[in-house]
């Protein structure tokens, strides 16, 4: 069998495994059973979706939630790990009821999934068979805390512990920031990025805004009360990058992060399968603010999101404003030369997001980068990666304290954050938890998610007896990557 044939067979096997997994979960779900089983569920959703495509009069946007899904049911998903012992029976109706960030997942799911299961799958899934997504969570189970006792100066929580965090001249309440996630405004998250900005202001938290934002960086910075940290997807035409950098400089942005893990198309297989078989409604059902993905692409064909997105391309999005969209302009590949040009043109702090190896961390330093951002895009970029927590030590070893290290992917607990700090990270980003909070309750949901994570970090510091972030070090954890995983995994 040729290598190509082998690849095709493997891909097909993976696809059917993912489908089987998905169907097994559907079949096991009391929610689906109450609807008459998998076939009935799929028939209903596909039927609704097709009815709409055929010009049916009632849009599913108009359906009250109570008609779409009884709130008493739960439909667990295969690609997310419930926390240990969690049963998903008591759905919170107010952010104040939340005990941890997982509490926000189900209310968002209930709002979204029966109307737009494809959209939910897009949010929750990683890529291929979800290996990296799972590895990210499992990684934390191999890192154990080593709590000290009777340390002087740590007189209990909250008094004796401070999570205060200063970076690049700004001080925040904790070394936890919100990740850039595109298109935060949709019909089910109406205020999108602005809600995140306001919540970050309330919780004195760093907000990293996506290049694919659906609210302008200017408005978000105003709502945040300080300039956002801006994530960049490299435009193919470098002169457009210069336009964007100038604009960010004028609005007072001090820090940018270039995302480099999207150099090839993603393979969000579970999401694609749900789109293809269950929910054919497409992205534009939810998102009203569109942008030109072709322009943010590093290469032709990258992030090719299909005809409907291309048709919506005339709206260049917030970061594409003022760009020269002529297709004849020279295009620059996204490589270290591109980074060097950006380094010359950007005088502020400059990080690279998506670093996963010692080699690339070394190149970041060589190319004058101000911070290294370890990320696998929340399990959404390459498959069968190690978890980011497992990658972290080799990056720390390479960087040797010369620049700060940001990290994300799979962080859901204050203990997760503590473990990363102990292994040498400087700050930790959260994507999904922030989106669950936003999708479920808007601004108060995001604020509560941040409050919970900050609180959990503080409690962990109190238990391990580290009074400040500077006191946290690698002696506070024991790492055994070969330790067996708890039975719940
Ligand atoms: C729906 C969604 C959209 C995202 N959009 C972007 C983006 O526009 N730019 C980017 O650099 N990363 C993007 N990411 C990745 C996040 O910045 C971050 O790396 C990831 O969510 C962290 O993992 P976590 O969700 O497990 O916390 C996105 C992630 C999700 C889930």
What does this 3D model show about the protein?
With 489 residues, the protein is of the alpha/beta class. The chain is built from 19 helices and twelve strands. The protein has helices at 3-28, 30-34, 37-53, 65-68, 105-112, 117-124, 131-139, 192-202, 217-224, 238-250, 269-277, 293-296, 307-311, 336-345, 358-366, 388-399, 414-422, 432-441, 443-464; strands at residues 143-145, 165-167, 170-172, 176-178, 208-209, 229-232, 255-259, 349-355, 371-374, 405-407, 427-430, 477-479. Strands 4-11-10-9-8-7-6-5 form an eight-stranded parallel β-sheet. A two-stranded antiparallel sheet has the order 1-12. α6 (117-124) runs antiparallel to α11 and α18 (432-441) crosses α19 (443-464). It starts with a helix and ends in a 10-residue tail after the last strand. 47% of the residues are buried. Flavin mononucleotide binds next to β11.
Shape: globular
Might you state the CATH topology name of the largest domain?
Answer: TIM Barrel
Ligand inventory: flavin mononucleotide
Major sheet characteristics:
8 strands, parallel
CATH hierarchy, class of the largest domain = Alpha Beta
Rounded Rg: 22 Å
Uncertain segments are 1-20, 22-84, 289-315
Secondary structure tally, helices:
19
In terms of DSSP E residues, the strand content is: 5-15%
In whole angstroms, how far apart are the ends? Answer: 35 Å
**Topology, number of strands:** 12
As laid out across the biggest beta sheet, the strand order is: 4-11-10-9-8-7-6-5
Q: Which architecture of the largest domain would the CATH scheme give at its second level?
A: Alpha-Beta Barrel
Helix content: 40-55%
Mean pLDDT: 78
What is the SS-derived class? alpha/beta
Looking at CATH, the homologous superfamily of the largest domain is Aldolase class I
Number of discrete domains: 2
